[in-house]
């Protein structure tokens, strides 16, 4: 997320009431998670295991819970609780704006687009030309939708990321201030839920088709011409390259990359990166040729056990 103007390091430090390391006028342009961070951004880190990754990232300002040596050309914000302070910054620059009508006055809707009754369209939403938005769709603030997109009834675009830190007495949610981009010629079925990015963008690329009751987590990128069948669940920060096919009830864990042309057969669960144009099956999923041999071998176990008993 980029800020509306360039802020000085001193201003951000005052906002969250922390000590800083670096020039007071050091420029701060925005904030982002580690996987999408850019020069000028703030990134937070609160575990020693990830200190080096954060300090050596593209981020210019590191919100950290220990005073460490500051890399050249960067600045530090020293916080007792970087997670909570990151939330304070998020809320300051992306505060909740309650709706006063079903279609916000700031929404932009292109020529030839049909919006059915009982649709909610939030602040600063952009919808392209010749789209069909069916009844009871909810589109949260800031979502961008291309041309020739179809959204079926009950779908929600822009809910919060499922991202929590466990505290002694409760779970603290990481504030969600990113958005969603739906490109041209996408069709999304009924009762789907697509979460916006924590600080970046969840993206569905051109020509992808999504069936009913699909969940797509925050910051995930779905490539062009993908097919996703009903009841698929895709965790956050996942990348699907072009022409990936996920059949019904597939589960995809966070942070993996599914290579171009990957196919996952129904009810498979994938927890690792895949190879180009390969088909996978099972949970945990493996290449179909290997998995089918394993299944065939398992069916022979009762006969093998009987033979062993006869030979005892």
From TrEMBL:
Superkingdom, natural source: Bacteria
One matching Pfam family: LpxD
GO process annotations (BP): lipid A biosynthetic process
Protein keywords: Acyltransferase, Lipid A biosynthesis, Lipid biosynthesis, Lipid metabolism, Repeat, Transferase
One function term, GO molecular function aspect: N-acyltransferase activity
GO cellular component, one term: membrane
UDP-3-O-[3-hydroxymyristoyl] glucosamine N-acyltransferase non-repeat region domain residues: 25-91
Xref: PANTHER family: UDP-3-O-ACYLGLUCOSAMINE N-ACYLTRANSFERASE, UDP-3-O-ACYLGLUCOSAMINE N-ACYLTRANSFERASE 1, MITOCHONDRIAL-RELATED
Designated name of the protein: UDP-3-O-(3-hydroxymyristoyl)glucosamine N-acyltransferase
